[in-house]
Amino acid sequence: MSDPVKYLLDEQHLPRFWYNINADLPEPMFPPLNPVTRQPLSAEELEVIFPRGVIEQEMSTEREIEIPGPVRDVLRQWRPSPLYRARRLEQALDTPAKIFYKYEGVSPTGSHKANSAVAQAFYNKVEGVKRLTTETGAGQWGSSLALAGSMFGLEVLVYMVKVSFNQKPYRRAFMEAFGARCIASPSDTTECGRKILADTPDNTGSLGMAISEAVELAAQNDDTKYALGSVLNHVLLHQTVIGLEAQKQLEMADAEPDMVIGCTGGGSNFAGIAFPFIGDHLRGGRKVQCIAVEPSACPSLTKGKFAYDYGDTAQISPICKMHTLGASFVPPGFHAGGLRYHGMAPLVSHLTELGHIDPRSYNQLECFAAGLQFAKAESILPAPESNHAVRAAIHEAEKCRESGESKTILFNLSGHGNFDMQAYTDYIGGKLKDLDYAESEVAMALAGLPSVD
Ligand SMILES: *Cc1c(COP(=O)(O)O)cnc(C)c1O
């Protein structure tokens, strides 16, 4: 038999614990602050919008946090996800590098986001919450929370960035199929939305605005809480099943990665695959280079400022120390909608400052080209977001071809692109351009950072 191309774990090898990197940080993180008082947030303040189970995880410094049985029972439907050896891609690239990818597109919603949606829905359900509100950009997070809400019997209300709401009718249909309500943001259903519409009636929305609308409703209603799809510690925690499984699968393959690669929007899928490896190193193990890949048109980690900033447009959510382009910055409309957020997960930012993460950026055209090259070799069409990780993996494999080094590369294929065919239609039709962000707009947005002393 020829060498294997996929490494599968049995259901019984689904991790029992999430890995919390907070336990191993060489320096503690900066605490999130109340946006009004600018004082560190208490658990009680967070209870207005989040369930206690989630807040405990947000603040925990315990290394291993048990995954509740009912959450594992749902995750088992598609987890452990497969790890593939990209043999045909290696051949096509004529590289001595070994390329492995962890495939998160096997979830029912087609991306890693379901991993956290299920956990968040569970903690809300056990605390008697009736309704969840959230934001969604391209629709992957909204779809995942819609699915998780229907599994645990919760109503779900999704504010979808208006430009995507109009461009991606199938994502909306998916959410509605699972019983969720989907509203184009900015909307007239919230105070924040009405204020934005009064100033700019044609506003096409942003993630920051949609977050404001969803948080406002959760803060005003006792039976309603808010769920965030990335950025916060507990979301990154829930995604660590990806890296924990990959570590076992690489052992099966008798391989040790030299580098781990993930794309970064808010930072959750990258953290999910990379944190277990960074954690091993922080506890004295071997160092693996961890590469976070972002779009050149929204380069928070590579070009942003490490500072306290608002998470949303209306400035009602906690302020966090992170790499940011400024909360009022609206990124240009490139196709990787899941990567269009002004900030970055505080944990990813912190570890980047400490030198444990290497950030880099690529333009969208080279990412689509890499995605199609990958698809032709491996027969999976990646999500436009995931193409950024693919681009970096191919780049590294090409460097090995030049140098003759045989490095082992692991990357996270965070989702499939089957809901993103318009993006591919535009790319193949030659309609896409590389977009640049306006430096003057970032400068203006950064001038609006909250002052914290
Ligand atoms: C949302 C999304 C991302 C970006 O979000 P992160 O929190 O940075 O992971 C990346 N890939 C896919 C497929 C997504 O749906």
TrEMBL record:
<dbReference type="InterPro" id="IPR023026">
    <property type="entry name" value="Trp_synth_beta/beta-like"/>
</dbReference>
<comment type="similarity">
    <text>Belongs to the TrpB family.</text>
</comment>
<feature type="domain" description="Tryptophan synthase beta chain-like PALP">
    <location>
        <begin position="77"/>
        <end position="415"/>
    </location>
</feature>
<dbReference type="InterPro" id="IPR001926">
    <property type="entry name" value="TrpB-like_PALP"/>
</dbReference>
<comment type="subunit">
    <text>Tetramer of two alpha and two beta chains.</text>
</comment>
<dbReference type="GO" id="GO:0030170">
    <property type="term" value="F:pyridoxal phosphate binding"/>
</dbReference>
<dbReference type="GO" id="GO:0005737">
    <property type="term" value="C:cytoplasm"/>
</dbReference>
<keyword id="KW-0057">Aromatic amino acid biosynthesis</keyword>
<dbReference type="InterPro" id="IPR006653">
    <property type="entry name" value="Trp_synth_b_CS"/>
</dbReference>
<dbReference type="InterPro" id="IPR006654">
    <property type="entry name" value="Trp_synth_beta"/>
</dbReference>
<keyword id="KW-0822">Tryptophan biosynthesis</keyword>
<dbReference type="Pfam" id="PF00291">
    <property type="entry name" value="PALP"/>
</dbReference>
<feature type="modified residue" description="N6-(pyridoxal phosphate)lysine">
    <location>
        <position position="113"/>
    </location>
</feature>
<keyword id="KW-0456">Lyase</keyword>
<dbReference type="GO" id="GO:0004834">
    <property type="term" value="F:tryptophan synthase activity"/>
</dbReference>
<dbReference type="InterPro" id="IPR006316">
    <property type="entry name" value="Trp_synth_b-like"/>
</dbReference>
<dbReference type="InterPro" id="IPR036052">
    <property type="entry name" value="TrpB-like_PALP_sf"/>
</dbReference>
<keyword id="KW-0663">Pyridoxal phosphate</keyword>
<dbReference type="GO" id="GO:0052684">
    <property type="term" value="F:L-serine hydro-lyase (adding indole, L-tryptophan-forming) activity"/>
</dbReference>
<comment type="function">
    <text>The beta subunit is responsible for the synthesis of L-tryptophan from indole and L-serine.</text>
</comment>
<keyword id="KW-0028">Amino-acid biosynthesis</keyword>
<protein>
    <recommendedName>
        <fullName>Tryptophan synthase beta chain</fullName>
        <ecNumber>4.2.1.20</ecNumber>
    </recommendedName>
</protein>
<comment type="pathway">
    <text>Amino-acid biosynthesis; L-tryptophan biosynthesis; L-tryptophan from chorismate: step 5/5.</text>
</comment>
